[in-house]
Amino acid sequence: GGLLTRDEFPDKLDDTTFVKDLGGSTGAKLYEYKGNRFVVKKGASEGQSVDEFLANQIYYILDIPVPSSILLADGNLAKEFVGKEADVDYDNPSDVKLIVRGFVADALLGNWDIYKNDNIILKEGTRTPFRIDSGGSLRYRARGEKKDNFGREVTELKTLIENNPKLKPYITDSVIKKGIEKVLEKKSDILNQILSEDLKNTISDRIS
């Protein structure tokens, strides 16, 4: 299915119908609006919601599947609900090969927890891996505290592999090279998404 457009999203939570709690550490909830379903989670801070929204925009620019998302007027992040066919099986080479296409993007965004829990799922019907929860991206950890070591070097190219050893056989030179080429090609589009000068400078340094 195509990504939802701005008109298909509510402006604020009051416009929607609550469906159910989805649980998880961030207290995600499912809502419905105009026949579409949305996941809304109150970030630990507005800054975290902004950073997750930004991360999704950057993944989208880099052609990595993510739910379309929007920051509501009340500061909450609303994301399109992606129906899940299955969790990713990190022992299944075909699953992992699809996921590592986004490895360089994950590293650039410092998305530390992306390979944990069910932050990546296989979408119903297509089995495309969707990164549905990027709350640990950029300046914030998944639980909402600020990172103390999100800096100008992309150390995650190493640490993400060290912390997720099942990925290692699939992170080939070609995966890294293709990922880096894509980021360089889209550098100005990526930086144009970022309003905070500090963050823009950090990401610019990380890319170059």
Range of helix content: 25-40%
In angstroms, what separates the terminal alpha carbons? 34 Å
Counted by DSSP, the helix tally is 7
Unreliable stretches (pLDDT < 50, length at least 5) are: none
Shape descriptor reads globular
Q: Sheet bearing the most strands, described?
A: 5 strands, antiparallel
**What is the arithmetic mean of pLDDT?**
92
Give the beta-strand count.
Answer: 8
| Beta-strand content estimate | 15-25%
What series of H and E elements makes up the topology? EEEHEEEHHEEHHHH
Structural class, please? Answer: alpha+beta
- The Rg value, from CA coordinates, equals 16 Å
Tell me the strand order in the biggest sheet: 1-2-3-5-4
Brief descriptors of the model:
32% helix, 208 residues, alpha+beta, 18% strand, 3-stranded antiparallel beta sheet
Task: Provide a compact summary of the structure.
Helices cover 32% and strands 18% of the residues. It has helices at residues 46-61, 93-99, 103-108, 156-163, 173-185, 187-192, 197-207; strands spanning 17-23, 28-33, 36-41, 69-71, 77-80, 84-87, 120-123, 129-131.
Notes on the structure:
The chain is an alpha+beta fold. The chain has helices at residues 46-61, 93-99, 103-108, 156-163, 173-185, 187-192, 197-207, and strands spanning 17-23, 28-33, 36-41, 69-71, 77-80, 84-87, 120-123, 129-131. The longest helix is centred in the N-terminal third of the chain and has 16 residues, at 46-61. The mean pLDDT is 92.
How is the topology of this model organized?
Elements: E1 17-23, E2 28-33, E3 36-41, H1 46-61, E4 69-71, E5 77-80, E6 84-87, H2 93-99, H3 103-108, E7 120-123, E8 129-131, H4 156-163, H5 173-185, H6 187-192, H7 197-207
Antiparallel strand pairs: 1-2, 2-3, 3-5, 4-5, 6-7, 7-8
